[in-house]
Amino acid sequence: QSIFVAIFFIFLNEDLREMLESTKESLKLEAMKRIVGLIARGKNASELFPAVVKNVASKNIELKKLVYVYLVRYAEEQQDLALLSISTFQRALKDPNQLIRASALRVLSSIRVPIIVPIMMLAIKEAATDLSPYVRKTAAHAIQKLYSLDADQKEQLIEVIEKLLKDKSTLVAGSVVMAFEEVCPDRIDLIHKNYRKLCNLLVDVEEWGQVVIISMLTRYARTQFISPWKEDGIFDENSEQAFYESDEEKLGTPQSKPYIMDPDHRLLLRNTKPLLQSRNTAVVMSVAQLYWHLAPKQEVGVITKSLVRLLRSHREVQYIVLQNIATMSIQQKGIFEPFMKSFYVRSTDPTHIKTLKLEILTNLANEANISTILREFQTYVKSQDKAFAAATIQAIGRCATNITDVTDTCLNGLVLLLSNRDETVVAESVVVIKKLLQTQPTQHSEIIKHMAKLFDNITVPMARASILWLIGEYCERVPKIAPDVLRKMAKTFTVEEDIVKLQTVNLAAKLYLTNSKQTKLLTQYILNLGKYDQSYDIRDRTRFIRQLIVPNEKSGALSKYARRILLASKPAPMLESTFKDRDRFQLGTLSHTINSKATGYLELSDWPTAAPDSSVRNVEVMEPVKKEISWTFGAPLKSDDKFYSDSGEEEGAGEEGTGSSSEDSSSSSSSSSSNEESDSESEDKNSKHSEETDSSQSDKSSGHSDKKKADKKKRLQLKKKAKKAAPKERYQMHRPPTHHPLTQELWNLRTFTPKMAYTHTGKKKNRKQMVALFLCVQVSSPVFVPMSSHELLHRMTGKGLAAQYHFPRQPCIYGNKMVSVQLTLTNSSDHTLEDISIGEKTSSGQNIHRFSSIERLEPGASVTVSMGIDFNDSTQAANFQLCTKEDQFSVSIQPVVGELFLPVTMTEQDFRKEQGKLQGMNETSATITMAPENTSNQALSKKMVSVANMGVVPTGEDSLYRFAAKSVSSGDLVLVSVDLTDSSSGRLTINTEKTVIGSMLLRDLKTALAQP
Amino acid sequence: MIHSLFLVNSSGDIFLEKHWKSVVSRSVCDYFFEAQERASEPENVPPVIPTPHHYLISVLRHRIYFVAVIQSEVPPLFVIEFLHRVVDTFQDYFGLCTEAAIKDNVVVVYELLEEMLDNGFPLATESNILKELIKPPTILRTVVNTITGSTNVGEQLPTGQLSVVPWRRTGVKYTNNEAYFDVVEEIDAIIDKSGSTITAEIQGVIDACVKLTGMPDLTLSFMNPRLLDDVSFHPCVRFKRWEAERILSFIPPDGNFRLLSYHVSSQNLVAIPVYVKHNITFREGSSQGRFELTLGPKQTMGKAVESVLVSSQLPRGVLNANLNASQGTYTFDPVTKLLTWDVGKINPQKLPSLKGSMSLQAGASKPDENPTIIIQFKIQQMAISGLKVNRLDMYGEKYKPFKGIKYMTKAGKFQVRT
């Protein structure tokens, strides 16, 4: 028959071959569909390879795709023929359409033919520098494929990975980290420079990439940061807030070194937290494990709610999540205790889910909730699922040993179960009672007697053996019953199971030693039976026992110790969770699930004892545009030259000062030159400067900053002593309470220089040249500043305090990621308002630079103050509290998208060049119709710049208008062009990497132009 | 990551295989079959099975096992979540995900799997992108295709993958612009013998069907967003906006999708809309047992409790049940011992009841445990938690969409212990 089938297939194949060679597309397609059907069913269709490969260049997309499927499946077996198709892909790699390039690379790299390795390598290298992020993503995928085909290419591939890791596109991030994990997971040094970028991109990466990045960052963080768990005692009691406050005090006593979290460590924790809300269970689990392995103990609690939510998902998800919760609940039962009821077992759960839930409930049991749990267990014991009932009995046993209050109750309950009809339940109860009695041998002779009574009815060997062992072990407590049991056993010895026989022999021996008068004959009888038993184990044991207990000439010295050997007090067995040692594996991994090391499992290292250098994560000249503000904005305010009297002699110092006045000098130092200085040195200079600043500005500083000043001085002295201290100490000295860690250094400086800008005489010229190399873009002063202001707080709601805000469109002096906002505060009440300030608590994630508090505001008077807000390039409102001495008012500033920019000037040529780089998905455009009033040259420009803070780019053409700006926070270019087709309509195009902002701006501009 | 995928039906046959890297012999599934044999119920097959060279991670949906073969360390949930996405996609494409449907559409299945994974790493899992790549088969299209020889594979290349809103396809056009939202809440509860609630939770979802032209930007606000204790979003929802203002702001995918799922804190008291009076007894030594069950509504705010279905797994010793239903029909399967009673709507004036006797195996001892009763029901036009949508606004497009919102409460895992 098999021959018949074979012949049938040959015919079938012939048929298909003919169809493939026909000229009709539809016939070819039909043939390919049938072939794919064969492949899907696991049938061999490799014979048709030559006929199929011919169609690789087909015009029909479906046919082509099916040929690809076939090719990838069989290329390995038909290597020579597969080479015929390569040239098609090579041609497609040069296609102008990015999707065709990507798909060609995808198939090419999937063909597992070693000969084409060099071709693949070349293609990958080229694709890695492709303009399209989608092609670059495909390149990242191809890296792994090539690596698995030829591991010798590792070095070259690492180079490509290094390049792709620098990529800023969210599309690429997940795939390249995947490649990194597969090819060179040990090259942690490649991550340093990209760490912060990865953290910041994470939320926007597609969900599968998020899982991979998070697990990689978990490993990374464990090697780079020091443990946040050091002072467990303090951590448990104090909230984060209190913890930081206590640091400030402790500064005086340097010998007790308090733990300060690295700001990068905090960044990771903060940026992953929103992902707990993901719909993807794998993402939620990976964030949960990250928190478990990296967060301070008191913060781990945030993950519980999300994990419990996952329990609503499919059974397979439940299984994995419950396993992880089981491991967690051993170490920190506190965090899951409020959710105890979510782990109650339902009769419809599969058995493995039930046992896991039971495990967790047992782990969570404590004095307070044990009665509830035991009541719940009572229901489970009666379950029809007997395996589960048995597991419940074990769980009761564990509760009884862990919580001494309920030991007796549990024992009594278990004894009741001894009369249960089900054998497995009885057997399990006996075994658990045995263990329990062993841990508490006092005065339980009643239970032993009861068990002895039940002995005749119990048939499960394990249970019988357990009872015999118990009676033997405590035979002195039940002197009357024990010999009787032995007598019964002597009768049935021959028909018992091996395990029971062994315990009978044991019992006999023990009784012989304690009560030889009554049992001597019985023992000898049993030993004789055992001597001729079929099982050699029992014969062995019998022989051994006989020599041990019956003294004769040959037995020698050993029998003297028989009593001590047999009746030694035995240590009680520990009733422990099976998940006790699971925490040696990283949570959420396959290894954790199967409880053994899976292939390719990467060990999570222990925290380093001393923090590695954190400056390795500093990124130099990453975003050159961003740096510009720090000096260009200073130019018009050039007034404090004298103040910088010493900046001439030490250029580096002046520069450092600049860095810290405008941005966080540690996170992204302002230029490469400053990086060359050692950390402690620059630190020192930095503070020197601040001090000077301080003194010269002391008249302006308020009471609040006075305090800071004292603080600072103290710190400065300290710092001089500890000049060579580890870099992490820097954070320790600078950390203000509850502040954005990245800008903490800044914060310190800012507080006593509230209204002042720095100017940079030092290297200004050099820097400008440098920047010119990067981009011919200059931040310019705003073309137009709208005077309209918006209401922040109405005088009625503000109890007399009215506030209005206005965007002055000046670069913010408090930080170059901030948008400056002017507040006009008016007192319209009839009494003086005191101490107007912004409250400490800001609910949203934005970073806000507060204005220094206003001590008095007379009735009718008004005052204008400026503040800075980092909107993070989104139009999300900044919420904060405006406080007076008596009241607090919650207010929010909702920025218009146009205010999130800074105008830049550039030449037309540069504009075109930049625009060319921002094609494709970075481009949004719309046709516009304009109100007749706006059509004139000037009116149009005016309209545009009033909507958004943009600079005008000069153009040669009449009907073409160009505007350029960059986003304040990230410094990405935003290029706007208006192309008028006729007098009242035209096309509006926006090119920017910030596509969301781009589309919002487009909308705003469109409506503005349509209005007169 | 994922090496190969095998689809196994309930009788243990592999009916589809797909490999993303080099071919893994299907004999690897023998380990799976072993585990399947050992498990008493189909659900008891462990989801993760280690074998000497590979690891098998499987999910069971619609009586089909999707067995993924893994070669090295990978988060198991990653694979499980992906497999469920595959099933969801099949369901989306073929209406139902059965062995027959998969076999009939084996080419589409293959094309889908090819797009969803590249080298074992997920590539395109958004249904909107996939539908642009591969058109779902419809009867009309199949007929047209056979006549004209055109294909299911999309002619134009998908741009969705490249856009900032990868979940939405571009160039959407509708003549009737409509957006419907279903707020569906499920009550999970365990009720004990005496009728008191042991645990009760509300799990809700908002499923949306959005058919809007262009790129609409929607905002949805609630009257009482504080009710939502724990939420998870479709990736389209802007998380920061929610954090700050408790408003759902999003550019929706085209078609059906789950916007939000939420959990109403278990600290709040959950109103249980039905009560059960029961009396199930087995007497020692007698071969008869009594069975009495009465259902009634409570705390339903005047809404009718509909589609009530009661089921219970009776003990193994029960041979047959002789019952009388005051309304609806009941069935008892003597093999699986499953009793189901299709009640329909509860009439508060005349409460439905099911009474009668059970005959037990002669000589068998009295069962230890009374059976658990599982109840399913639906209540239209009510969200039991009291969640209310305040308003839905659309920005970014000019037309006026038709908006609709529907509330429903259902029983989730609702069990009564007797």
UniProtKB/TrEMBL annotation, chain A:
Q: What is its main location?
A: membrane
Where is there biased composition of kind Low complexity? 658-675
Q: SMART domains, from UniProt?
A: AP3B1_C, B2-adapt-app_C
- Keywords for this protein: Cytoplasmic vesicle, Golgi apparatus, Membrane, Phosphoprotein, Protein transport, Transport
Tell where it localizes. Answer: Cytoplasmic vesicle, Clathrin-coated vesicle membrane; Golgi apparatus
How does the UniProt record describe the way this protein sits in the membrane? Answer: Peripheral membrane protein
Looking at the record, the residues that make up the Beta-adaptin appendage C-terminal subdomain domain are 900-1010
Domain of life assignment: Eukaryota
**Keyword Transport appears in the UniProt entry:** yes
Q: Can you supply one Gene Ontology CC term for this chain's record?
A: AP-3 adaptor complex
The AP-3 complex subunit beta C-terminal domain covers 741-876
Q: Would you kindly state one Gene Ontology biological process term found in this protein's UniProt entry?
A: vesicle-mediated transport
Which segments carry the region annotation Disordered?
640-740
Task: Check the record and name the PANTHER family matching this protein.
Answer: ADAPTOR COMPLEX SUBUNIT BETA FAMILY MEMBER
Its function, per the record, reads:
Subunit of non-clathrin- and clathrin-associated adaptor protein complex 3 (AP-3) that plays a role in protein sorting in the late-Golgi/trans-Golgi network (TGN) and/or endosomes. The AP complexes mediate both the recruitment of clathrin to membranes and the recognition of sorting signals within the cytosolic tails of transmembrane cargo molecules. AP-3 appears to be involved in the sorting of a subset of transmembrane proteins targeted to lysosomes and lysosome-related organelles.
Member of which family? Belongs to the adaptor complexes large subunit family.
Q: What is this protein called?
A: AP-3 complex subunit beta
Name of the coding gene: ap3b1a
Automatic annotation (TrEMBL), chain B:
Q: Where are the transmembrane segments?
A: none
Q: Which UniProt keywords apply?
A: Cytoplasmic vesicle, Golgi apparatus, Membrane, Protein transport, Transport
Under InterPro entries, the record lists:
Adaptor_comp_med_subunit (IPR050431), AP2_Mu_C_sf (IPR036168), AP_mu_sigma_su (IPR022775), Clathrin_mu (IPR001392), Clathrin_mu_CS (IPR018240), Longin-like_dom_sf (IPR011012), MHD (IPR028565)
**Gene3D superfamilies linked:** 3.30.450.60, Mu homology domain, subdomain B (2.60.40.1170)
Q: Where in the cell does this protein reside?
A: Golgi apparatus; Cytoplasmic vesicle membrane
Question: How does this protein lie in the membrane?
Answer: Peripheral membrane protein
Please tell me one Gene Ontology term that the record gives under cellular component. cytoplasmic vesicle membrane
Q: Which GO terms describe its biological process?
A: intracellular protein transport; vesicle-mediated transport
- Domain (MHD) ranges: 176-417
SUPFAM superfamilies, alphabetized: Second domain of Mu2 adaptin subunit (ap50) of ap2 adaptor, SNARE-like
PANTHER family with a match to the protein in the record:
AP COMPLEX SUBUNIT MU
- Report the sequence similarity comment from the record: Belongs to the adaptor complexes medium subunit family.
Under what name is this protein listed?
AP-3 complex subunit mu-2
Instruction: List the top taxonomic levels of the source.
Output: Eukaryota, Metazoa, Chordata, Craniata, Vertebrata
